[in-house]
Amino acid sequence: MADAADPGLVPVDLSAPRRIHVVGVGGPGMSACAVLLAEDGHTVSGSDWRETDALGRVRSAGVAVSVGHDGGLVDGADYVLASTAVPDDNPEVVAARNLNVPVLRRIDLLPAVGERHTFVSIAGTHGKTTTAALATVALRAAGWDPSFLIGAPVASLDAAAGIRSGELLVLEADESDGTFLVGPRVAALVTNVEADHLEHWGSMDALEAGFSEFLAGTDGPRVVCADDPVASRLGAEFAATTYGTHDDATYRIDSPQFEGVRVRFDLCDPTGGRTPVDLPMPGVHNARNAAGALALSASLGADLARAAAALRDFRGVDRRFEVLGTAAGVTVVDDYAHLPTEVGAALAAGRDGGWERVVAVFQPHRYSRTERHWHEFGEAFGDADVLVLCELYAAGEEPRPGVSGELLLEAVAGTGRTAPLVWQPTLDDVVGYLIGELRSGDLLLTIGAGDVTTVGPRVLAALGERER
């Protein structure tokens, strides 16, 4: 396991304007870092291998973006920042090392950012992106003006990252490589703790110890989800504030009501007060995300009523139950879920929304993750009236013997499922099947962290042609 407790492996000084080049700038994490650095006064350039919508957002922040990789792009750079997905033989990484320009990973950058901003760190196996976005919006409405660094674009913030006037920086704190341990943290939140990224941590015990260290190293409020057994147990060691549906939660979700893509509930606080929350996102998991964001905001001293009122107009996060559109009476939604618990939550939200059928497409993500969790997916798809499975998205990993998307087909079939279960190996196959299967009143939910996100727009276009 990498030494997660030793961030800042490469010294970084951002006390004066620097020239920084970002390799893989189209990725969610690197694009957010590039925007944050540009808004903090540094001269930032970036590159990626193909044109994407994300590059347009980065350019709008003043980052000079190139499509394609060229070692000459690092000339004059003080630092080169590269995603962990960028290989060591990338020409820009090679050129930087030949020029003795420090090559940074995100774990190297964050301590330098922390010298200029105090972190409000939001961590957890899933839900942290949405919770961080909701917390930023809530704190802004309550009169705070935090900077933010989040792993996906947030419509209500018009960005995934930004520098604002406040001292605080809301950070989506990533446990995958140990960067969530970077400080200083004035507050911390843990949404849940499940077995993931064990290729970094080595074991579940080590992962739990990392989260314990995360809470222990926080100089201020600690907030955990009462509904998650591991987060709740770890939080109890530090007398953490809790939130959720559990009867003993410090901030308790009461009387949740689901309608389409909204959830409404009362948030009961430790003073006995009840604050109405109206969130334009579906599902009890998003009610928890909102409750966590509000509990954190209140723990920092924000006015709870003002913070909650701001969530009424929250406009969502990319790929988090993102409504792509409607055509021929079919609503198409895309979701980033890629672990069994996340998939189940997304489908439950779809089931609560009142559609006649939930038609789900799932693309497994990574050989390592599929090998570890395939058997757990068997029970995750119970809320899908029609389930379409396809081949996994490798995300740059090398194939592993016996590991493929068909393992999930085996797991689901083994549950005795009687509702339609369909194998369509390629995304072209998936689109062709859906065009013939979908009907008015359906919800099409495309799920996964890979390029399954391209299915929804293709289906919408085809259904649109059907309407003409």
Structure overview:
The chain is an alpha/beta fold and 468 residues long. It folds into three domains: 19-104, NAD(P)-binding Rossmann-like Domain (Rossmann fold, 3-Layer(aba) Sandwich), CATH 3.40.50; 111-313, 3-Layer(aba) Sandwich (UDP-N-acetylmuramoyl-L-alanine:D-glutamate ligase); 322-467, Alpha-Beta Complex (Protein-Tyrosine Phosphatase, Chain A), CATH 3.90.190. The chain is 32% helix and 24% strand. The chain has helices spanning 28-39, 53-60, 91-98, 106-114, 128-141, 198-201, 204-216, 229-236, 284-299, 304-310, 340-352, 367-373, 406-413, 427-437, 455-467, and strands spanning 19-23, 43-48, 64-67, 79-82, 103-104, 118-123, 147-154, 159-162, 168-172, 185-190, 222-225, 241-244, 251-259, 262-268, 274-279, 322-327, 330-335, 357-362, 386-389, 421-423, 442-447. The strands form three sheets. Strands 8-7-9-6-10-11-12-13-14-15 form a ten-stranded mixed β-sheet, sandwiched between helices. Strand 4 (79-82), helix 3 and strand 5 (103-104) form a beta-alpha-beta unit. It is globular, with a radius of gyration of 22 Å. The termini are far apart. The model is unreliable at 1-8 (pLDDT under 50).
